[in-house]
Design goal:
- By secondary structure, the chain is an alpha/beta fold.
- 41% of the residues lie in helices and 19% in strands.
- An eight-stranded mixed β-sheet has the order 1-2-4-3-5-6-7-8.
- Strand 3, helix 1 (41-44) and strand 4 (49-53) form a beta-alpha-beta unit.
- Helix 4 packs antiparallel against helix 7 and helix 5 (146-155) packs across helix 6 (166-176).
- The model has no long low-confidence stretch (mean pLDDT 97).
- This is Alpha/beta hydrolase.
- Keywords: Hydrolase.
Length: 263
């Protein structure tokens, strides 16, 4: 996959772009990168123009601000699409990427054919979760990224799949270690301070796909499946933790393709 770079919101953004057809945008999770989607890209690019980006401070993207709110990331994605001349997309956001996708759907719904939260939630952080963000931020700033990324990467997978996914966990660590200290700290702050956005799911008339992992320790299914409406599809991936794109990529591709085929 060839990496390209353009400037959006004054920030150099690294991305993949491959395939033809209706455009879809893939936004990775915290401490991730565009490579998170490598196992699903080959199938999706058969029918769609697929764009996967690195968020600021992640992967090979730059970072011009000391910190970003979730809404700032959403604006950056909008500006990125404007620079590519893309007027309508279907957006898939994994974890942190899902928070950004929800903000994007609230602020710029005219850009969307539909959107999906993949192992993500419309809920705000709990008090305990906010404290955890602060603790991790302090740890990263004092100790650097290495031990934090190693520890985080194992938590992303189902405990039942750890031995089966040793190679995949190693890949996740390599991707995560590309994230700068500033990128991690900024993202932690953005996640901590994001508002509840269940009203976006409740009010949108756009097609929505909610994807949850049966064994997800980070965002369990009940936190993903928070709103019931006819335009909202729910898809539970069996035997998967927070990383179905690595643990059960074919099931994730199936869910994505089924959703996209109805748009």
């Amino acid at each position: 996959m060839t990496t390209q770079k353009i400037k959006a919101a004054n920030t150099e953004i690294s991305f993949y772009e491959e395939g033809n057809g209706k455009p879809i945008v893939l936004i990775h999770g915290f401490a991730g990168g565009k490579e998170y989607w490598d196992k699903v890209l080959p199938e999706l690019t058969k029918e769609y123009r697929v764009i996967a980006i690195d968020l600021p401070g992640h992967g090979e993207s730059g970072m011009v601000n000391d910190s970003y709110k979730i809404e700032d990331y959403a604006f950056l994605v909008k500006d990125f699409l404007d620079h590519l001349g893309i007027e309508k997309v279907t957006m898939f956001g994994h974890s942190l990427g899902g928070y950004i996708t929800l903000a994007f759907a609230e602020l710029y719904p005219q850009y969307l054919n539909g959107f999906s939260l993949v192992h993500s939630t419309a809920n705000a952080d709990t008090t305990d979760a906010k404290e955890g963000r602060d603790t991790n931020s302090e740890k990263i700033q004092k100790q650097g990224t290495d031990s934090f990324i190693e520890e985080l990467s194992k938590k992303l997978f189902s405990p039942a799949n750890l031995e089966l996914n040793i190679v995949e966990i190693s890949e996740i660590v390599k991707i995560g270690l590309k994230t700068s200290v500033k990128g991690l700290v900024s993202a932690l702050s953005a996640m901590k301070n994001r508002p509840d956005r269940n009203h976006v799911l409740e009010e949108t008339e756009l097609p929505v796909l909610l994807v949850a992992g049966e064994l997800d320790q980070i965002v369990p299914p009940e936190k993903t499946f928070t709103v019931d409406k006819p335009n909202i599809q729910k898809y539970l991936i069996k035997n998967s933790g927070h990383m179905s794109m690595f643990e059960q990529p074919q099931d994730l591709v199936r869910a994505m393709n089924e959703f996209l085929s109805k748009l």
